[in-house]
Amino acid sequence: MAEVEEQGRKASEEYTDDSEEEDSEEEPKLKYERLSNGVTEILQNDAASCMTVHDKFLALGTHFGKVFLLDIQGNVTQKFEITSVKINQISLDESGEHVGICSEDGKVQVFGLYTREGFHENFDCPIKVVALHPQFTRSNYKQFVTGGNKLLLYERNWLNRWKMSVLHEGEGTIMNIQWRANLIAWANNVGVKIYDISTKQRITNVLKDNISLRADMYPYSLCWKDNTTLIVGWGTSIKICVVKERNPTEMRDLPSRYVEIVSAFETEFFISGLAPLADQLVTLFFVKENSDQMEEEFRARPRLDIIQPLPESCEEISSDALTVRNFQHNKCRDYRLEHSEGESLFYIISPKDIVVAKERDQDDHIDWLLEKKKYEEALMAAEISFKNIKKHDVQKIGMAYINHLVEKGDYDSAARKCQKVLGKNMDLWENEVYRFKTIGQLKAISQYLPRGDLRLRPAIYEMILHEFLKTDYEGFATLIREWPGELYNNMAIVQAVTDHLKKDPTNSTLLTTLAELYTYDQRYDRALEIYLRLRHKDVYQLIHKHNLFASIEDKIVLLMDFDKEKAVDMLLDNEDKISIDRVVEELAGRPELLHVYLHKLFKRDHHKGQKYHERQIGLYAEYDRPNLLPFLRDSTHCPLEKALEICQQRNFVEETVFLLSRMGNCRRALQMIMEELEDVDKAIEFAKEQDDAELWEDLISYSIDKPPFITGLLNNIGTHIDPILLIHRIKEGMEIPNLRDSLVKILQDYNLQILLREGCKKILVADSLSLLQKMHRTQMRGVRVDEENICESCHATILPSDMAKPFNVAVFHCRHMFHKECLPSPGTIPGVLFCNICSAKRRGPGSGILEMKK
């Protein structure tokens, strides 16, 4: 990609591989921008050699020996001219108040940014690295280390003088130092070592894997993830080391701490820098120049990858190829990766360019989704994080989504999204409605229009209704049912429907809809006419809901023709609104309907329609004979003579028999049963019901010359009359079918009666004896007599005050008590006393008494 020279913020694709971005649907993890402003001018005339990042500012060292303090945007705030040769390292303490600088000519300076007092020293060899104690600002920790041929520790003593001590030497040039808490990690030609300054012990030595690589061309990358985790990168190898406390029992002469390598793996490219990102790693790679997998023009392009370390390998999360200025001329040693621990900011430093990588925020995520036309996901992300997004507006994203759906031709989805996106903005709603009208899709948006407290102008709804009325009667009817009548001008829509009915007067959909419109307009009589004309099921609901009973008095026949059951139930449930007389009057010309009404009325209440019972006899006889006999039985207001006349005219034998028996003419009724029905069982049942000896005599007389009748009598009369009366009257020689069986049954019935009588007698005797014994036990019980009891005659205390004197007390089983002298003289039975109170109610001998004498 061509080099971008303009200043300011640049989109991430300006620094990443375009082909990868286009081919991959995976969202990038980082975004990039070039550090510009003062940095651009500095790097035009000089080249960056090192940089250190603090949460508040940046410190940039150059090849011409200058150190610049920059703000986060790259503006120069301070400038120090340290030397004329390359600045190798800048170190800051945690407070950002002190800085340490070393250069290629052996100069080392440590001073306060707000005071120039500090340490200044010239060495006779290049000093590659310097590191201040993280708490250097505090007086107890005025310490720093330098790395050249030796690792030197400088400490300020109580005399304010600097004391130097050698921590390590003899293994070549010290290439990198990282100080975290009490641990100092450094790298030389042999490997990486860690020194515990609190115990003054070296606790590990991590050897490098590939000794063939020159340390000055492929420098070490050291980074502390936390106070005990060190990440080491060199060549193509990465190791994650964890400093742990040693078990006291294992110490002996060993250091109190040891290092465990928890992850070690190889990478494809050379490592130029490392930084932690949560539990992942950000790695800056210098691409191998001899790689066959890369095209020629991309071989020297650095890559910034995010990887997930595993115990023996790693998983690539994302990978971006960076186009930094002059990347074609850079080597592995020319790149550095610094990071800000306070924020997830990563600085890629090269001689002629500094690029800042940062984690993508929600706005960036939405940008990417919109770019990929994933509008629904973008809208969802904006709704979830609406408090955190700064660049985007939820409604604008929603509008873009709606436009996208319309362009695709997915009009229903676009209309459905309007409900969510447009919300309460009535102007936007109207604009969308007119747009859908323009593209001929008013039907799509109709079902999603606001119809609650917030609503559009009536003209909008009327426009949609007119559109449906032209093309879709069913859809029009649906909208009329679903939309409240207040949304539009009801009269205008009624007129439009009426006009259409002139062309198609029998269209049931339009007629039903017109009835609903009349209902909304409270013109219920017109709605009722249409419903009745259509025989619509909602007619009864309309009548009940709007109390239209006065309007249906002359339409009762129509209602019953439509649905007899519902009509009758409605009329009977509302007798107070439509009287029985009025209904009977209306149904006079339709006797079959009148019968249905009066029959249900009689079922509900036998007395309400009593004056119509005489008419009902003929109606039952004509239309419902099965219910005639139950009606005659239940009615107490039916004229029997009239009923008998009708039944005899129509030859209704069972009904005539019932009426004759009810009028007292049981013999004639029995005669009809025997002669016309010829049903001996019914005759016997009738005789049983009447329980009349004369009827039984008539029945026997009539049956005596009919053998089948005799068999029936023999089988059934044994429990009502003496069978001997029948048997004596049977002529000798008459052949009677099943006579033997009938006689056996008579004997069995007789034996059963005897057994029943004996059983009843035994039960009666046992019960009598049991009750007598119970009464005897009850009467033999004592009765408590104390000072609270009184004589029922003289009302004095039943017991005398002087218990030493003799006294007589009579206590009856009814619990009444008397002094003996207060009782009347014995009656007709000598020696038997009666309770004065109870004997008035019950004449005769009283209950036995208890006498108390003393």
UniProtKB/TrEMBL annotation:
Q: Residue span of the signal peptide, if any?
A: none
CHCR repeat residues: 568-712
Report whether Protein transport shows up as a keyword of the record: yes
The record's Gene Ontology biological-process terms are: cellular response to starvation; endosomal vesicle fusion; macroautophagy; protein targeting to vacuole
Tell me the ranges covered by the Vps41 C-terminal RING finger domain, including all copies.
789-840
* Residue spans of biased composition, Acidic residues class: 14-26
Quote the InterPro entries the UniProt record gives: Beta-prop_Vps41, Clathrin_H-chain/VPS_repeat, TPR-like_helical_dom_sf, Vps41, Vps41/Vps8, WD40/YVTN_repeat-like_dom_sf, WD40_repeat_dom_sf, Znf_RING_Vps41
- Gene Ontology CC terms, in alphabetical order: clathrin-coated vesicle; cytosol; early endosome membrane; Golgi apparatus; HOPS complex; late endosome membrane; lysosomal membrane
Its annotated function is as follows: Plays a role in vesicle-mediated protein trafficking to lysosomal compartments including the endocytic membrane transport pathways.
| Entry keywords, A to Z | Autophagy, Cytoplasm, Cytoplasmic vesicle, Endosome, Golgi apparatus, Lysosome, Membrane, Metal-binding, Protein transport, Transport, Zinc, Zinc-finger
| Cross-referenced Pfam families | Beta-prop_Vps41, TPR_Vps41, zf-RING_Vps41
> Can you name this protein?
Vacuolar protein sorting-associated protein 41 homolog
What is the similarity comment for this entry?
Belongs to the VPS41 family.
Region annotation (Disordered) ranges: 1-30
Q: What is its main location?
A: cytoplasm
Q: Which gene encodes it?
A: vps41
**Location(s), subcellular:** Cytoplasm, Cytosol; Early endosome membrane; Endosome membrane; Late endosome membrane
